[in-house]
Amino acid sequence: MRAWIVWSTGTLAYIVAVLDRTTMGVSGLDAAKRFSASPGVLSTFVVLQVIVYAAAQIPAGLLLDRFGSKKMILTGATLMVAGQLVLAVTVSLPTAIAARAVVGLGDAFTFISVLRLVPHWFRPRQIPLVTQLTGISGQLGQVLSAVPFLSLLIGSGWTRAYLAVAAFGVLSLVLTLALVKDTPSGVTAHDPVTSVRETLASVKTVWMRPGTRLGFFTHMGTQFSVTVFALMWGVPYLTVAQNLSRGEAGTLLTISVVAAIVFGVLIGIITGRHPHRRSWIVLGIVISNALIWTVVLALPSAAPRWLLVLLIVVISFGGPGSMVGFDFARTFNPRSTLGTAQGAVNMGGFVASLLVMQAMGVIIGATGGYSFASFRLAWCVQYAVWAFAIAGILITRRKARRTIGQIEESRYLLEFFSDSESAQASPRPDR
Where is the Major facilitator superfamily (MFS) profile domain (predicted)? Predict the structure, then answer.
């Protein structure tokens, strides 16, 4: 029971982080009016946040290996509360952009810190499923931004909506302080302080492990499409290009979360029982994302509602699919460097997301602003990322399998020679 209390409290911190991450996605049009921002400038809000988030992953992982989960979760929560408070009251565009960057930094500290709690508190066979539950539970933050936050934004205005989000962050911070422990014993072996050269060498060692790079490309190929949709361009696309109301768009984002939860449980069970099939599941998710977008973008006008629902459901599989990347990192890295490995993996999807978000903003601005045609062209930039990620998965998967084969061969030889030496040293049994 204690393990589930710690995990639930940590997961609440992640839910708040996802809420903070996605508020700009549902309030993008309001932000454009509040700060008099063009589509390109508006995308800078989220792009800068994601740049900070992605750039901070390796430093956050190193700090996590050094200081442990609890301190990192508390630091992240404090930064996000501060950023949302500033956003609630400011009307200055530069100040708002800086506040959004602070939110991104706090967000960067949170997820991998919560994820690191899992192997310390749960049995090995539970880890894949609990890892999936962490990811899909966190997406409840997207529901909070799509329904109550959006309702508060429409009914009470910008300031009250963002103040409410900041207050929720304070609640999470207090609960983390009271209930979270890094390990059941309360003692965690942290990395000693090292020089810059040793730190860089450690990061290089972690990155050179094929499982880390396989996790990176897995996260990249599966996660970016749904992230771009939820964080930035989903609601504008649905309301402007597909003629949905803001309420209908919020409902579709809620459907996205439900789909991710259902599929996340299934993929957690399957990958726990069949770890050698993980990469095939990942490739299937990436290809299905590309196919459903091809169907939608091929239409000369707005898509029927059922097809939009299908689009949301299919791209939502990418969230649970990206969690497999962290499972690859856990498989190929010792616990002492797991934070660094998870940070490296987490960069994959968010680097792709920020590139796509910025490229879409530029394309939409260059083609005359928000319209069906501009969104249709802008979404096509996804295909370059999918191709790159698939190539990376196939190459690193082969190297990872070769590494596993070498490890298993070494274990066989060690057991063989150990058995031989034991047989020579033992007296022969009487016949």
Answer: 6-404
